[in-house]
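Why should sequence recovery work at all? Because a backbone constrains its sequence more than one might expect. Tight turns favour small or flexible residues, buried strands favour hydrophobic ones, and helices have their own preferences. The token representation captures these environments compactly. In the example below, the structure is given first.
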């Protein structure tokens, strides 16, 4: 797997959005796939290479704790629980329980499979037994490299737009990350760092600069953060941690579409 934690989060968000789009429903045995590289624009603009592995395979429970203290003394707290599985080929399955804030809410588990070996992202709707599959595709022949002369000959000649001057304050440089040394979490060695990001006054109407601190405890064995803590005055304190970690190959069926599911294929990305 060649995904950083923030990139994994983007892929999960992508699948949640795509599940409500329209697609073609086919039996699960007809789901296509591909191996190669693909370009995904938008927020990341990243190119991913399918397959590969950066750490040991594992299974773990995921706990997210959110705390916010209001100016009137009120305190908001909720937790999100789930599971995470990653095999030796880099496939990832996450199961996330939606938080329930009242008795009328219906329990819901978001199941997402990121399979860059087959070049697909899968969202499983357990209630309706539908798998929404987004195929990531392959490079096309149009990606052939053109010579500088050919590119220049085919480029339309346009007049440059007048320059628009935008006055912005110079961002405050962030302090260098702090090395917090090594520790043990769940019996595994982790390396700790603490970083601070400064948002200048006026960026979002704030009178004073806003500092966001992020504390990471990274496992060199699994190549993931076992604990990640983020805190700032606006969003409060958010803790994400892996617990009950077990090294070893998860069940291969966890990364496949169940045979009794219908598949809704999305346009190739």
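From this structural description, the recovered sequence reads:
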């Amino acid at each position: 797997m060649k995904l950083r934690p923030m990139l994994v989060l983007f892929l999960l968000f992508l699948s949640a959005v795509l599940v409500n789009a329209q697609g073609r429903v086919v039996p699960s045995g007809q789901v296509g796939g591909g191996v190669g590289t693909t370009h995904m624009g938008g927020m990341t603009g990243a190119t991913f290479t399918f397959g590969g592995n950066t750490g040991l395979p594992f299974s773990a429970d995921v706990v997210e704790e959110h705390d916010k203290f209001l100016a009137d003394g009120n305190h908001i707290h909720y937790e999100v629980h789930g599971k995470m599985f990653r095999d030796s080929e880099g496939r990832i399955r996450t199961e996330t329980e939606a938080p329930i804030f009242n008795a009328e809410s219906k329990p819901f588990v978001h199941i997402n499979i990121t399979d860059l070996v087959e070049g697909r992202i899968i969202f499983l709707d357990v209630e309706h037994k539908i798998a929404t599959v987004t195929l990531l595709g392959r490079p096309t022949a149009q990606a052939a490299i053109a010579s500088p002369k050919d590119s220049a000959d085919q480029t339309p000649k346009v007049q440059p737009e007048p320059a628009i001057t935008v006055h912005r304050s110079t961002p405050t440089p962030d302090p260098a990350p702090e090395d917090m040394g090594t520790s043990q979490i769940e019996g595994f060695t982790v390396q700790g760092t603490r970083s601070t990001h400064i948002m200048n006054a006026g960026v979002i109407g704030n009178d004073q600069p806003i500092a966001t601190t992020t504390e990471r405890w990274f496992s060199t064995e699994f190549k993931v953060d076992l604990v990640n803590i983020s805190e700032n005055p606006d969003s409060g304190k958010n803790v994400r941690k892996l617990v009950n970690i077990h090294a070893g190959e998860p069940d291969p069926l966890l990364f496949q579409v169940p045979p009794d599911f219908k598949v809704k294929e999305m346009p190739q990305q």
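A few observations help interpret the result. Residues 5-140+172-266 form a domain with the outer membrane lipoprotein receptor (LolB), chain A fold (CATH 2.50.20.10).
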